[in-house]
Amino acid sequence: MFSRMERERKTVRKMITLYCRIKHRTKKGELCVSCRELHDYAMMRLKKCPFQEGKTTCGNCAIHCYKKDMRERIREVMRFAGPKMIGRHPIFALMHVLDGMRKRAVRK
What we know:
Layout: H1 4-23, H2 33-47, H3 68-88, H4 90-100
Helix pairs in contact: 1-2, 1-3, 1-4, 3-4
């Protein structure tokens, strides 16, 4: 199985791709410039997360490391793609919900 951080990266990537494909009508597997920017930013923030394997979901984290505009953009993506993930990527959706049940992140 995937490590916690690997799973988080894959989940975020799938959510952004799903959002971009439906909202911006991109081809399967492609991202528009705006979504590519958000994806790259999210991957960088995950790479620099101080909690790594002990992290909760970003929405439950005590440290908000996203810039304000990027945080709003990722929230929009999550609100749109989250419910659709259940039907399209049920394992990743379930694991994301379970990861979100962790109340506090733990530094590892």
